[in-house]
């Protein structure tokens, strides 16, 4: 069976995230190029990759540039891997990781999609001052947790009208409003990787940092809960 073969620069490895979910794709590196091969018809997304060369390979691995009948080389002997193994997902970490060739770091990018607001990140003192005077009815549908950096993550609806980072929710992930993953499938993969037990909320920011907050660490919004939190922070 004939195969399509593509070569990419190593610096273009992040582009492979757009085709990582497609079956029948294999990849390898030779130190100069990233090689991608697929048996049979290639998906439209594959053709949109920033490939430097595109070939048709025959059963003997002889390479024919697309649209030409004269071969220009032969498919090298490489350690081919399924694309999902060649480029494993690396979740964002609390310190930005170094770049490893052909390894893709999950990141958030600006998005024009509209999402319902589901969380708000504010300094704890801003949240505390609001709770002191807010009607109990406004607090009844909210819960919160506070980080070591004295930031309050508030969940619920409607959210309080406070200055802070508005967020939306995807799976167990809380993402800043106006941002999303580069590829749709990365949300589910990241959630499984960072929260395999589904026992926490993961907050990610645009700098690649993340915080894991257990469901048990969220408490119902009330004046007494805020006072108790204030006491703990003061003694911490």
Automatic annotation (TrEMBL):
<protein>
    <recommendedName>
        <fullName>MoxR-vWA-beta-propeller ternary system domain-containing protein</fullName>
    </recommendedName>
</protein>
<dbReference type="InterPro" id="IPR045552">
    <property type="entry name" value="bpX2"/>
</dbReference>
<feature type="domain" description="MoxR-vWA-beta-propeller ternary system">
    <location>
        <begin position="9"/>
        <end position="227"/>
    </location>
</feature>
<dbReference type="Pfam" id="PF19918">
    <property type="entry name" value="bpX2"/>
</dbReference>
């Amino acid at each position: 069976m004939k195969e399509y073969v593509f070569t990419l620069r190593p610096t273009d490895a992040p582009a492979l995230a757009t085709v990582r979910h497609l079956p029948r794709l294999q990849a390898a590196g030779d130190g100069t190029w990233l090689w991608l091969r697929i048996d049979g018809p290639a998906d439209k997304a594959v053709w949109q990759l920033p490939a430097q060369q595109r070939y048709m390979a025959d059963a003997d691995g002889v390479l024919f540039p697309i649209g030409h009948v004269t071969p220009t080389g032969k498919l090298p002997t490489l350690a081919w891997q399924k694309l999902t193994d060649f480029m494993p997902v690396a979740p964002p970490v609390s310190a930005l990781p170094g770049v490893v060739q052909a390894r893709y770091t999950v990141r958030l990018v600006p998005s024009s999609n509209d999402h319902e607001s589901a969380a708000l990140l504010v300094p704890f003192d801003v949240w505390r001052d609001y709770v002191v005077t807010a009607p109990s009815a406004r607090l009844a549908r909210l819960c919160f947790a506070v980080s070591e950096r004295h930031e309050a993550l508030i969940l619920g609806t409607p959210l309080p009208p406070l200055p802070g980072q508005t967020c939306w929710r995807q799976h167990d992930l809380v993402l800043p409003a106006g941002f999303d993953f580069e590829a749709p499938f990365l949300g589910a993969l990241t959630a499984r990787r960072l929260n395999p037990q589904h026992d926490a909320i993961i907050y990610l920011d645009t700098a690649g940092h993340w915080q894991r907050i257990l469901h048990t660490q969220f408490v119902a919004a009330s004046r007494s809960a805020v006072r108790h939190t204030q006491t703990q922070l003061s003694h911490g």
